[in-house]
Amino acid sequence: MNAFTIKDLENLTGIKAHTIRIWEQRYHFLKPQRTDTNIRYYNNEELKKILNIALLNKYGFKISHIDRMTDQDMKEKILNINNIQAQQERIVNSMIQAMVDMDLESFEASIEDYIRMKGIEKTIHQIIFPFMERIGVLWITGHINPAQEHLVSNIIRQKMIVGTEVVNPMFQLKKTALLFLPEGEFHELGLLFVQYLLRSRGLRVLYLGANVPLEDVEYVVKHKKPDFVYTHLTSVSSAFNFDKFIHQSLKRFSTVPLIVSGRLAASYEKKIPSQIHFKRSLQEVTEFITELV
Q: 261 and 122 share a domain?
């Protein structure tokens, strides 16, 4: 059983902690427990309930009305919301719920169903990345068990790899990208998606994978001469020094552009050397890759 803080609920639902506290005082659908130091915490069932409540409230249902609904009423109302964005959010919510319950069959079925309807690329854009963004903070803070993270990550990883293997671009570009994650970075899903995007647009990809020493990257750059090097930083180890990484990258392969995306790139505020290019959002990543074609 997981224990979620009120901040976790805020990150997962978009509902401010202050609002959640008010709901607790006025209504009956949330009954948090408290630690010995009087800090609220919520269990799996309360998390699943507030995900549904937040979705209904976002799409027009008053909280006073929701408070009178049974769990079954909520599920039926959510299924009947005639809004594409709401249905995507519903699927993401169901993935979060399946993750906390370790219901791997339901988790995988949600992804498979969407792939059949929309294809792998739209599935990644519309449900996998939103899922990862919402639960990413839980991975970093350790508010879900690492086993839960590994299980769902491996399902997503398998889908991305299969999608990449069957991709058939209309034409091949004479450009090569070298993809890697530096030492201490093991969260590979973002980089796998970049690989899919590049290969689907006809680029050749050299994929080194996770936790790669910079000297190994330098060796491949020297012998394969890629057009650019790409890394995606999500949640590196506490020993990782971003400034040192930039300095060492420039020192080892200064003649090749280095593209950096991910959570760490989005929050980096210092001046960036001209040879290094940050892509601070998914939109910037896709725009960069589109411009390569």
A: no
Q: How many domains does the chain have?
A: 2
Q: Which two tokens stand for residue 120?
A: 């792998």
CA angle centred on 175, ends 170 and 181, rounded to 5°: 110
Encode pLDDT of 96-154 as tens digits. Answer: 999 989 999 999 999 999 999 999 889 988 999 889 878 876 766 667 778 888 899 99
User: 159-162: long-range contacts (C-beta < 8 A, 24 or more apart)?
Assistant: 159/111, 159/112, 159/115, 159/120, 159/123, 159/128, 160/120, 160/124, 160/189, 160/192, 160/193, 160/195, 160/196, 161/192, 162/120
Q: Residue type for 41, please?
A: Y
Cα 4 to chain centroid, rounded? 19
> Which residues form the domain of 76?
6-164
Predicted TM-score of the model (pTM):
0.79
- The DSSP output letter for 4 is B
- CATH number of 81's domain: 1.10.1240.10
Which among 164, 179, 212 is the end of a domain? 164
Beta carbons of 144 and 135 less than 8 angstroms apart:
yes
- What is each CA distance from 106 to 95, 99, 133, in whole angstroms? 8, 9, 20
**170, 293 in Cβ contact below 8 A?**
no
Regions of the chain where pLDDT drops below 50: none
Tokens of 65: 């009305």
